[in-house]
Amino acid sequence: YTTFATRDLCSLMLMDSAYIQVKDAEFYNRKAEERGEKDRITPIYDEADARACLSRFVAIDYNTTLPISPGVQLTFHNAAHVLGSAVVLLDLEENAEKRRFLFSGDLGRKGLPILKDPVYPQGVEFFVSESTYGDRLHEPIETRDDHLARIINETVARKGKIIIPSFALERAQEIVFALKKLLLAKKIPKLPVFVDSPLATNITQVFRMHPECYDEEVLLFNNHNDSPFSFEGLSYVTSVEDSKAINDMPGSCIIIAPSGMCEAGRVLHHLRNHISDERCTILIVGFQAHYTLGRKILRGDAEVRIFGLMHPVDAKVEVINAFSGHADRDELFEYRQGLGSAVEKIFLVHGEEEQCEAYARFLADKGDRDVTVPELYKEYPLV
């Protein structure tokens, strides 16, 4: 069960993931054969598996209740994290006893551009909450466009390029929309902007198909036949040849390319070409997990390994954490408060251990008496 937007996104992303897994397995097996090794790997799933999976999707609208099993009714409410994201509300009934259970998934933030704000279901008794930023605070959303403009203008003055590692879903579209607004306000100069990703290009088309998810600001553009995801100088790059050509272009430009944590994708090629150029800027706009290349760049490593070779990090590294699509600690707590006083038990998941534990202590200090960080494979009775 999923929202309509998520179904459409999965039709792209599952097939893309399957294709990458197949190609990675072929590459590994070819190298193993060259080394005379017997080990072979198979992809977890391939494109045929993805197609079979997609045929079983059932899409429903937000705020629509659907019985999915005896005694279980499902309702999706907007989570405001990415297009189509939802908090999962389950109304449960057994032996004439009714209970209400909510799973947050990834929670978004109030006031983020493009998407409507998150919805707060009422009467929830059991709440499973994410905790990605359970002990961190973001910069105010209101500051991020000016922050972005400063970084662009300073880099252009150095005649450098701005490399933005970005998730293909949501983050790429948010950056494009932010750039459009800055250009309209004449806060940045006109310069070439490249979204260098076939997947991000296709995902942007899915965004255009789902205006029901837009907030009022984006709807104003849409209603005037002015797409929030296009402007003069913006190019969506799909071919490998065009992607390679970007690195040889003289002068300043902005390159938005997956993957967001710099572990794969076309951004690696752009980093290899520009990370040692002190005129350029690497702009981090999303979460960087431990041990990823993005985390190493973020923490200030003097050298990083790209395609097996060490490269000095001479480019300027900037961070705008206000682009994060995850609620920070105070926003997570605001959502918790919005659920009301009926909540009896809270389970914290989807966060690094220190973030889960810190947020559990924070909630306990705020008056929630039953907060648990679940252990793997352990069962927890609700009643």
What's the CATH C level of the largest domain?
A: Alpha Beta
The biggest sheet, with number of strands, parallel, antiparallel or mixed sense and barrel status, is: 7 strands, mixed
Report the CATH topology name of the largest domain: Rossmann fold
Output mean pLDDT: 95
Low-confidence stretches: none
Count of extended strands: 15
Name the helix and strand elements from N-terminus to C-terminus, one letter apiece. HHEEEEEHEHEHHEHEHEHEEEHEHE
Helix proportion range: 25-40%
Q: Order of strands in the sheet with the most strands?
A: 1-2-3-4-5-14-15
Structure in words:
The protein is of the alpha/beta class and 383 residues long. The protein has 2 domains: 4-136 and 326-372, Metallo-beta-lactamase, Chain A; 141-323, Rossmann fold, CATH 3.40.50.10890. 34% of the residues lie in helices and 19% in strands. Helix 1 packs antiparallel against helix 2 and helix 1 (4-34) runs antiparallel to helix 5 (198-208). It is globular. The mean pLDDT is 95.
Compact summary:
The protein is α/β, with parallel strands linked by helices and 383 residues long. Helices cover 34% and strands 19% of the residues. Helix 1 packs antiparallel against helix 2 and helix 1 packs antiparallel against helix 5.
